[in-house]
């Protein structure tokens, strides 16, 4: 029986820790938009708590419209990059992967995406990923601004990871 060589991971670098902190902060900022500025009844995850929502404010103003798309694209791109840290030169692919996922989810909220999703044959009591996506499209609205914000978030993740760790 042959054994595979085990690679012991080096301690986390300062850049990995800093990037992870910025990703978590970005996720919290994006979540704050939903909690403070948006109607909980229209948010899939907050809908069960809608009866307890306090008076909404406009803390984020016009930025609140696209901020979650930007911050989530940044955060998830960075987290993928950090997860792939042992393998150099993966950051561009990580950003492209997240932009593809974000774009696909946004497309599902369009008329064409809705039609495609609803055309799939499922059981009424389905609790699969497809049922989740169907609910996601019901609560969301396609917005080209969200696509642009996702692209900016991914590019920002790419730029910041290059700035903090140019040798990766």
What would your notes on this structure say?
- The protein is mainly α and 168 residues long.
- 59% of the residues lie in helices and 0% in strands.
- The radius of gyration is 19 Å and the shape is globular.
- The chain contains 6 helices and no strands.
- The model has no long low-confidence stretch (mean pLDDT 85).
- The two termini are 35 Å apart.
Features:
168 residues, 6 helices, globular
Bin the helical content. 55-70%
Strand content: under 5%
Number of helices: 6
Mean pLDDT: 85
Radius of gyration (Å): 19 Å
Could you give the distance between the termini?
A: 35 Å
**H-E string:** HHHHHH
Structural class: mainly alpha
Question: What is the structure about, briefly put?
Answer:
The chain has six helices and no strands.
Task: Please render the helix and strand layout as text.
Blueprint: H1 14-36, H2 67-83, H3 91-108, H4 111-119, H5 129-139, H6 144-164
Helix pairs in contact: 1-2, 2-3, 2-6, 3-6, 4-5
């Amino acid at each position: 029986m042959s054994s595979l060589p085990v690679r012991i991971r080096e301690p986390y670098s300062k850049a990995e820790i800093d990037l992870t902190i910025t990703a978590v902060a970005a996720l919290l900022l994006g979540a704050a938009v939903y909690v403070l500025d948006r109607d909980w009844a229209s948010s899939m995850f907050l809908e069960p708590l809608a009866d307890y929502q306090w008076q909404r404010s406009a803390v984020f103003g016009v930025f609140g419209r696209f901020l979650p798309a930007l911050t989530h694209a940044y955060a998830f791109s960075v987290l993928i990059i950090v997860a792939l840290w042992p393998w150099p030169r993966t950051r561009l692919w990580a950003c492209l992967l997240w932009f593809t996922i974000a774009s696909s989810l946004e497309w599902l909220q369009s008329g064409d995406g809705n039609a495609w999703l609803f055309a799939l044959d499922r059981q009424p009591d389905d609790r699969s990923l497809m049922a989740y996506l169907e609910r996601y499209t019901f609560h969301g609205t396609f917005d080209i601004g969200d696509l642009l914000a996702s692209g900016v978030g991914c590019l920002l993740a790419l730029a910041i990871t290059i700035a903090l760790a140019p040798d990766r």
